[in-house]
Amino acid sequence: MLGNTLKSALMISLLAFATGAVADVTFSATQDGSALNIDKAMFDTPAAKEFLATGKNPYIGNEDAIKKGKKIFNLYSCVACHGGHGEGAVGPGLIGANFRYAKNATNKGMFETIWHGTNGGMGAKGFGLMAPDDGLKPDEVLQVISFVRSNSTVKMTGNE
Fold it and tell me: Is 81 annotated as contributing to ligand binding?
């Protein structure tokens, strides 16, 4: 199933490239695939804007972003369920080749899962889905993802 999804995404990307079309990435809920409507104004940093345009996380491999992502990972108690490096504990591992949600192999998919939560009990971490003064901004989610990817056991960047 993932193979067909990746083939479809590649075909769409190639068509967009060939026609010169550039469109913002669209997001879907991990729970049911419904559209996630995230205010584009929240993508307010150069990295977040690049991610919105491409679905690629520019923070992958960036040591400063990895350090900030680790702090956020600890602050939001991600470690309680996913372990100190994302290896898994009560919740699923985030760093191996096998994901509870196959979409998490991509940074776009992991962003959607973190932003809106899962059916498995993880609540939404996205800004505006919790109290208006709580939650993460898109740039912070990208930094968390960069930390998680830095611990990958299969050297997966999610930007493949």
Answer: yes
The verdict on whether residue 65 carries a ligand-binding annotation is no
Task: Say which amino acid occupies 130.
Answer: M
Q: What is the pLDDT of residues 2-40, one digit of tens each?
A: 454 444 444 444 444 443 445 799 999 999 999 998 899
Q: Quote the pLDDT of residue 121.
A: 77
Residue 118 CA to its chain's centroid (Å) = 13
Q: Does residue 159 belong to any structural domain of this protein?
A: no
Q: CA-to-CA distance for 88 and 118, rounded, in angstroms?
A: 16
CATH number at residue 134: 1.10.760.10
* 27 close to 35: Cβ distance less than 8 angstroms: yes
Domain carrying residue 118: 2-150
Note the pTM of the prediction, 2 decimals: 0.82
